[in-house]
């Protein structure tokens, strides 16, 4: 089930509704997630992605291997800046040597992988039309022939661009973490454990994975909000301490000034002589 079953994209509202109903009946964890988020939007996350074809999606996935989303976004920004804001075509990317890709922020391995992939698309060994006609398993087999491309990279392309219905990226660290959270594990699930958990999701594995990813994103957003609230609280407390310190200094300076004025006034006064009685 890791690579899924070849089928049409499940993007129409009726198909999504059918998939959610199926998952609710097949898995109590899924039922709870779906019930907790009635406003779930299956395609919301796609709006955050750049416009890209299958090759561009693979480039996006390769860049994102084993680095943070922030770092990947910065590298993609520098890469797209070289092709008028779009992900380079295979022909354009093939003209960039490994040293140039290194300057953009790629590792040597990723640079070599991208150039190899671009060459295969340019030479016609790989094509979007040809890959789109294959089963999920066959797409994984074809693309993992490219050194530096593993199942995680291909699963992302199957989900994002080809929109296959039954893809579960068991090797995704974020997905492993959210499965551990919701299925009561005290460790990240192994491949076999993950496949056993995901078995009831078939043939809607992509939708189930999407629900779990959405939950993970909500957790990340909540934690980010908590960190920001804590930062604001720290800054507010620091500001209040600084205001109090300045007020103490102002009061101290004012007291010193008044005392100095008093001393000055006393210094100008003549002593009063006592009159003696006669």
List the main descriptive attributes of the protein structure presented here.
about 280 residues, mainly alpha, Endonuclease III, domain 1, 13 helices, about 65% helix, disordered N terminus
The structural domain count equals 1
| Helix share bin | 55-70%
Q: How many H/I helices?
A: 13
**Biggest beta sheet attributes:** none
- Give the full name of the CATH homologous superfamily: Hypothetical protein, domain 2
SSE layout and pairing:
Elements: H1 13-26, H2 28-36, H3 54-63, H4 69-80, H5 90-94, H6 98-104, H7 108-122, H8 128-132, H9 136-143, H10 151-160, H11 173-182, H12 191-198, H13 205-268
Helix pairs in contact: 1-2, 3-7, 3-10, 6-7, 9-10, 11-13
């Amino acid at each position: 089930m890791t690579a899924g079953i070849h089928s049409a994209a499940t993007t129409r509202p009726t198909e999504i509704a059918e998939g959610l109903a199926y998952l609710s009946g097949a898995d109590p964890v899924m039922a709870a997630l779906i019930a907790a988020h009635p406003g779930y939007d299956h395609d919301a996350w796609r709006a955050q992605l750049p416009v890209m074809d299958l090759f561009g999606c693979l480039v996006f996935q390769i860049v994102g291997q084993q680095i943070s989303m922030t770092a990947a976004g910065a590298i993609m920004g520098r890469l797209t800046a070289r092709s008028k804001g779009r992900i380079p075509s295979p022909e354009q990317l093939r003209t960039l040597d490994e040293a140039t890709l290194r300057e953009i922020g790629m590792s040597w391995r990723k640079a070599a992988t991208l150039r190899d992939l671009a060459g295969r698309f340019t030479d016609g060994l790989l094509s979007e039309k040809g890959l789109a006609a294959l089963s999920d398993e066959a797409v994984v087999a074809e693309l993992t022939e490219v050194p530096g491309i593993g199942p995680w990279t291909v699963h992302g392309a199957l989900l994002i661009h080809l929109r296959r219905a039954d893809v579960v990226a068991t090797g995704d660290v974020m997905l492993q973490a959210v499965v551990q959270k919701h299925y009561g594990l005290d460790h990240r699930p192994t491949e076999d454990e993950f496949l056993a958990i995901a078995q009831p999701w078939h043939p809607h594995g992509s939708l189930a994975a999407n629900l779990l990813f959405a939950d993970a994103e909500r957790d990340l957003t909540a934690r980010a909000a908590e960190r920001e609230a804590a930062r604001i609280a720290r800054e507010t407390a620091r500001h209040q301490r600084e205001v109090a310190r300045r007020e103490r200094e102002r009061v101290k300076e004012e007291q010193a000034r008044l005392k100095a004025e008093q001393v000055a006034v006393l210094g100008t006064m003549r002593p009063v002589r006592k009159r003696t009685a006669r």
